[in-house]
Amino acid sequence: MEWLSYLTVISRKPRFLFNSGIYDMMPENMKQYMKSCGSTDRGAILKILAELTG
Description:
Strand content: under 5%
Largest sheet: none
Shape: globular
Radius of gyration: 10 Å
Number of helices: 4
Low-confidence stretches: none
Helix content: over 70%
Structural class: mainly alpha
Number of strands: 0
Order of helices and strands: HHHH
């Protein structure tokens, strides 16, 4: 699977993160942090992750 393009799509719809395989691959502390963030902040974080991994 092409995770980078998938991550970019999820950054536009950040609520979908919790239903994705990417969320399951995250370390536990990152999962907790992402759950504590609002949808807008979560999307911004995912967008930065996509840019950094690209």
